[in-house]
Each structure stands twice: as structure tokens, then as C-alpha cells.
Structure prediction request, 327 residues.
Amino acid sequence: MELAISYSRVPLRDHHVSIFRLHSYRPFQELHASILKYLTRLDHPAPRGYTKGCPVLGGGPGRAVAAVFGDAQAVAFLANILGGTIDVLAYSAALAVVSGTALAGPPYVSDDPEPTDYQHYEIYLFTNGMNARDGTGGASGIDFNYGAAPDLQLTAALPIAYESPTAGSTVANLGNVELAAKYRFLHQAEIGWDVAVFPRVFLPSASARVGETHASLLLPLWLEKDWGSWSTFGGGGCVINRGGDSQDFCQAGWALTRQVLPNLQLGAEIVHQTADKKGGRASTGIGVGLRYDINENLHLLGYAGPGVQNAAQTARYSWYGSVLFTF
Prediction:
């Protein structure tokens, strides 16, 4: 016969526990309630390695099936009472499918409020660019992220920027180095949304021909909500951008993604920016992105899309690609 399966999500500080139950087996409904009661009493930080994995317990008919995220004591407890085996699966393969938690941020222009896991690293080797009427420009470099504390991510990006004008020679040099800190102060378990601030400082570039020769500061707010295999995130902020013919401007974006396969996420977004130079024009663009997880530690990301407002003057099309290392 067919079995009706549902699950419950229990907040465990900054982690979540998803307990699946088989409604056709009455004894496991009682077991389900006992498990939830036990797990809500756990009150210690997750050990290193479990926040990036999805320990899955259980197995065939007649057993409760549970997925526990972030707590080794709960894993051992459930394995003991269920007699199940433990398989640590890649975050991207199991967590997104079983619990509905989705990865966001790059490759999209819109960012997300989820910081890098505590004492873990996310390192992007990236390239990006855009084409407009007066030429093509972009950057390649490294984007380094570290989980310095629960809900706190520190970021440093080192780009080698290039400009290839329609009339003139191509030039490349160190672009605007970025220093940033992301802090998530609200969680989905509390209000249904993750919310974070992510201020970024952009240092002056090394050359007047690439990037900006003055410092600027981005002050954004980012939100995210996950359900099932879907995730939506976005927000925006304004940039203090004063120097030369530059001017302060604001930007906003919103994205929607879906985990279509255990190791493949697809998405789309729309972004808008007011003019960043005196006499300049606002821009709006759309794009599609993907993330492919080769394994737990190696990921490929890509993005491309056209401009739809003042495209000739701002960006006819733009792109992004990166290799992401997580550990």
C-alpha cells in the first residue's frame, strides 16, 4: 500500500531538525513525538562538519525516517532508537531536497542573507563582465568568505579588472578591492524570513582606467525565504559613491531559484540600479543562473542575461562564472 509521509521542522538554535513520519504506522507517530520532545532540549553548538552535511537516518518500511541537521548527539540518539544507518550526504544533494534549504547569493547580482557556516570557508574563483555601446569591461579574481562567528561572515574580494573600449586598447589592473561583513539578525525559524545586513567597502582601484579611483560604501539589506525545493531572496541598498563625476546611487534585485536535481539548481532574477554618474542613466536587467555541485566541496556557477532598460548605454548583456570551493 502507499504510505503518507510528512515532516515537521523544529528550530534548534540556528539549525533545524526535520522529522519524517509514516502515517500508516501508529507506533511511529508516538516515536515521532518523543523524538521532537528530546531534540528541543538539546542546547549546545553544532560540531564542526555537521552544518555542511545532512546525516540521514532510517531505512525501509516500518521505520521512522529522520533527517537531522547540525547536531551529532541527535544523530547518535536517533540511530540508536531507530536502528538505522548514517549516511553523510552532500549539503547540496540532500539538504536542499530533504529540508528545503536552498543556497543563494552568487551567481546572482542579488545577494542573500545566509552567511558562510561558522568556521567554514567559501572561496570563489570568478570572472564577470558586461558589454555596452562603448565597449566591454569586467573582472576576474578571488572572492574569499569565512564564517567568523554564528551568523557572521567576513568577505574579501581581490579583482583584476579590465576595460576593452570600442575605440582604444585594452587595459587591465587591480580593481576595487572589496571588504565586507554579513550579519544575519533574523531567522526563518523566528519570523519566516532570514534577514541580514551586508555592508561593503570598495577601496580605490590601482589605475584610473579601470574601476573607480575613490572609495565607496554599499549599505544593503537582504531577505530570503525557502520552501520545498524553492528559494526566493533579494533586497537592495544604496551606495555612497562620491568622487569625480560619480554620484550616490541605489540598487535592488530579486531572485527565484529551484533545486531541479539533487546537484543542480536553476534560477532567474531581475535587478535595477539608478544612475551612478552625473548625467548617467538608470538600468534594469534580467538574468538566469545555475549552480552545479560536482561534490560536497567543488561547485560550478554561471549566470547570463540581457539589459532591458537603457541597455546600449549601460549593459547590453552581462555574465558571471565561477568555481566555488567549500570546506
Remarks:
- Residues 26-39 form the longest helix (14 residues).
- Residues 1-29, 41-102 have pLDDT under 50 and may be disordered.
- The two ends are 42 Å apart (CA to CA).
